[in-house]
Write a structure and sequence with these properties.
The protein has a single domain, classed as Thiol Ester Dehydrase, Chain A. About 25% of the residues lie in helices and about 40% in strands. The protein contains 2 helices and 7 strands; from the N terminus they run E-E-H-E-E-E-E-E-H. Belongs to the acyl coenzyme A hydrolase family.
């Protein structure tokens, strides 16, 4: 029987304080810093799911919705939403957490991560156990995004 894991087993969250060295010339969190933090989360999520080394194959739907500013608390969460044979999709949300605990989404992206064996070759990933309606909806959306990624790849994008 193939190995399987729950979405909740890969759920990962980090918290960052926006400091002066994270700011761009406009006084907002530099997008490249946020992308780095998001890529790190995607990698951790994928490692938790596969229990193997992983690489980032692609990032899509990276949308900057709002800015973050000095002293803002940025919470980044990631989880596996879809798996193929050797790759998986990881949804990464970035939010500013306010003093009252409310979170405002500032960025969302979908990372395609590939599991690697000991020789750095792609290797099969565990199946995904879906436990909630939300997880099932994410799976269906992930399947659609996978088709779109394949089409873009075929067209040279």
């Amino acid at each position: 029987m193939a190995e399987s894991r729950k979405v909740s087993e890969s759920l990962t969250e980090t918290v960052h304080m926006v400091r002066p060295n994270h700011l761009n010339a406009a006084g907002r969190l530099f997008g490249g810093i946020l992308m780095q933090w998001m890529d790190e989360i995607a990698g951790l999520v994928a490692k938790r799911h596969t229990r193997k080394n992983v690489i980032t194959a692609s990032v899509d739907n990276l949308r900057f919705l709002r800015g973050a500013y000095q002293r803002d608390v940025v919470v980044i969460t990631g989880k596996v939403t879809y798996v193929g044979n050797t790759s998986m999709e990881v949804k990464v949300d970035s939010c500013v957490e306010h003093l009252n605990g409310e979170r405002t989404l500032i960025n969302r992206a979908y990372f395609t991560m590939v599991a690697l064996d000991e020789n750095d070759h792609p290797t099969p990933v565990p199946k995904l156990i879906l436990e909630t309606e939300e997880e099932e909806q994410e799976w269906e959306s992930g399947a659609k995004r996978r088709v779109m990624r394949k089409m873009r790849k075929e067209e040279g994008f």
